[in-house]
Amino acid sequence: MTTPHPRRFRFSGWLIAAGAFVAVLGVTWGLAAKAAAERSVMSSTAMPTLPVHVYTQYTQRGMVPDYVGLWMGLALAAVGAVVLLVGAATAFASARTP
């Protein structure tokens, strides 16, 4: 039985580490963006009082949260998961190659 090529094994180890790091970073980013979007919607629901003799509700606008950060975090987590899987497949294949 032969040992796997050290260079290939080291490369797959880096892929696994980088993929895990990027996946965790993406999930953290997504959760932080979701919390920020929810907080911005909740803080803007309170209607400020209007000045005297102002009859239009100029402050009544629907607050639409910005979910771009959430989608970016999910995309980053997906890329990290793909890199993690590629690294694991490379490590598995190099371990089985004679």
Secondary structure class reads mainly alpha
How many strand segments?
A: 0
The sequence of SSEs as H and E is HH
Provide the β-strand percentage band: under 5%
Largest sheet: none
Radius of gyration: 24 Å
SS element count, helices: 2
The general outline is rod-shaped
Kindly report the average pLDDT value.
78
Which spans have pLDDT < 50 for at least 5 consecutive residues?
none
Proportion in helices: 55-70%
Q: Termini separation (Å)? A: 7 Å
Please give a quick description of this structure.
With 98 residues, the chain is mostly helical. The chain has helices at 6-43, 68-96.
Core attributes:
98 residues; mainly alpha; rod-shaped
If you had to describe this structure to a student in words, what would you say it looks like?
The structure is a single chain. The chain is an all-alpha fold and 98 residues long. Helix content is 68%, strand content 0%. It contains 2 helices and no strands. It has helices at residues 6-43, 68-96. Helix 1 (6-43) runs antiparallel to helix 2. The protein is rod-shaped.
Question: How are the elements arranged and paired?
Answer:
Blueprint: H1 6-43, H2 68-96
Helix pairs in contact: 1-2
